[in-house]
Amino acid sequence: MNKKITEKLRKRTIKSFMDILVLAELKKGKSMSGYDVISFIHEKFGMLVSSGTIYSLLYSLERDGVIEGTWDKRKRVYILTEQGEQDMRVITNANGEIHNLLRKIMSPSQS
User: Fold this and answer.
1) Could you tell me the fold of the domain covering 2-106?
2) Which residues of the chain, if any, have pLDDT below 50?
3) What DSSP line would sit under the chain, residue for residue?
4) What is the pTM for the complete model shown?
5) Alpha-carbon distance 67 to 85, whole Å?
């Protein structure tokens, strides 16, 4: 039962931070297609994500100006934009705040 709850929470967390996972991977300087993103998440976290979820996320990130997509033969590949680089710097600097927030959420309430 505990393992089932933990796995459900892990999947929820991955889905919630999927945009940051994609941006962090693109920050390494390589371009990625939607298929590459699906493969990356599966290899790193053992979780299969639907193509609809990934392409919706990629289109949203592109609309927000943090990634840019171009056609490479028959597939669309994405790179991080300057805005995406700036956003990743902010996210990286907020790492401690995110940890503290999660700690507060998970700790028993203090009355």
Assistant:
1) Arc Repressor Mutant, subunit A (1.10.10)
2) 111
3) -HHHHHHHHHHHHHHHTHHHHHHHHHTTT--EEHHHHHHHHHHHHS----HHHHHHHHHHHHHTTSEEEEEETTEEEEEE-HHHHHHHHHHHHTHHHHHHHHHHHHSPP--
4) 0.83
5) 9
